[in-house]
Amino acid sequence: MRKGMAWAAALLVMPISALSQNPVEAPTTPPARAAAQNPTERVTLEDAIRLALEHNHALEAMRKTILQNQAQETTANLRPNPVLSWDAQFLPIFEPSKFNADYIDSQAQFDMGVGYLFERGKKRQHRLQAAKDVTAQTRWQVSDSERQLTFNVAQQFISALLAESTLEFAQQDFESFQQTVDISEARRKAGDLSEGDLLKIKLQLLQFQTDVSSAKLAKIQAIAALRQLMGYESVPDQFDVAGDLEYQPVHSGLDELKAMALRTRPDLQAAEQGVVSARSQEQLAVANGKRDLSAAFDYSHVSSTSGGSFFFNIQLPIFDRNQGEIARTRYVVTQMEQLDAEAKQQALTDVVDAFYALRTNDEIIRLYRGGYVEEAKQSRDISEYAYRRGAASLLDYLDSERSYRTNQLGYRQALASYMAAMEQMRQAVGTRNLP
Predict the structure, then answer these.
(1) Is 7 helix (H, G, I), strand (E, B) or coil?
(2) How many angstroms separate the CA atoms of 361 and 276, rounded?
(3) Which of 44, 355, 391, 405 could be joined to 386 by an S-S link, Cβ 3.0–4.6 Å?
């Protein structure tokens, strides 16, 4: 017996000494240390919006339109170039013998002139103003694209939060039910539970495993879609969202939100600027109806005499006075005014829809938080406690478990819907700082 105990002690000590003497075979980096060296970057909602505004390629492409319009301003402000002309006439090309200084001075003719187009009606000023108005409208359109992108990022971020919360709940619920399965197997071995009831419990375990797998897939897809909006190069491959599904009540009135939307929404500013731009185009069309004056001065040398000549040229606006373009631009002004009015009505409709969607989701959250969440948890805990001790039937326990799972998933979905309605309100109003 003493020898056997000695051999057992030696076997227990041997792995420790072997690891200390042979460090190559020992694990070089513990899993916890490896995770610390490669931490997962967590991104908040504010970070996600900032990264999207900085790195989203579609938005960057649209911002280049502003630079293009600024280049058009430079083009619109350019003046006409002066025209230099010259000629030589009556040269003895086919009679080279006459090509001498006397012939050139007395018989050949030389002309050199400079001409310039004088624009009337302040065309250049009107072109420049029209180009500036287009640039201003483009700026508001880019701001509206930023508003839409912010809303899309927030919606996708909430989807990722919901997927993460659902995954955590599914894993916790699976682990809890796994303990119930273990206890049920022990009861069956003890003869306290039938084989049929144990099989029902194991089949129910499949639903929990399916929930975990579905939640993992939903989170992967939500994270991938969020990364596309933020820009793939803005975050590493391993990143996660930081935050929780939370309830923040809003007490703003409908009229206050409507007034704020009319003041702050960039699409409304773009529509108003569209009217201004259309009027600038109309003024430019009227200016283009004025005919420009061409003036030139020519120096001539002919028959041993040098002289100067002035030439003037202008169209007589008898038939073409740019009537068609003027009429078209006036219709464009009317069209832009109608679109501006429609944009304002659409903004007010968006505020109303978002306001009542937020109020409805707020009522649903209050119902859950009023006791249904806690009551479902208490019912499940009581049924589980009673079942594990043989005081409740299997059907009662499974029914309470299903009710608890449905209640928890519904509550998380309600929180996500409320947060999404909040983002819809921010988008409808045009600012993230709601009163």
Answers:
(1) helix
(2) 40
(3) 391
Is the Cβ–Cβ distance between 68 and 139 less than 8 Å?
Answer: no
Nearest to 209 by CA among 241, 177, 249: 177
Q: What is the pLDDT of residues 225-282, one digit of tens each?
A: 999 999 888 888 888 899 888 888 878 889 999 999 999 999 999 999 999 999 999 9
pLDDT digits (tens, 9 = 90+) for 417-435: 999 999 999 999 999 888 7
Tell me the C-alpha distance between 138 and 408, whole Å: 46
**Residues linked to residue 298 through DSSP beta bridges, in sequence order:** 113, 309
User: E strands along 242-373, which residues?
Assistant: 293-302, 305-314
d(CA 230, CA 224): 10
How many Å apart are CA 73 and CA 145, to the nearest integer? 23
| Helix (H) and strand (E) counts in the chain | 12, 6
- Integer Cα distance of 207 and 406 in angstroms: 12
Give the residue among 48, 235, 247 at the shortest CA–CA distance from 160: 48
Taking the complete model, does pTM exceed 0.85, yes or no?
no
Q: At what angle do helices 123-189 and 266-288 cross, to 10 degrees?
A: 160
| Residue 50 exposed, middle or buried by CB count within 10 Å (0-12, 13-18, 19+) | middle
Place of tokens 């929930």: 211
φ, ψ (nearest 5 deg) of residue 50: -65, -45
In whole angstroms, how far apart are CA 169 and each of 140, 221, 418?
Answer: 43, 18, 19
Instruction: Say which DSSP state 370 is in.
Output: I
How many angstroms separate the CA atoms of 259 and 269, rounded? 14
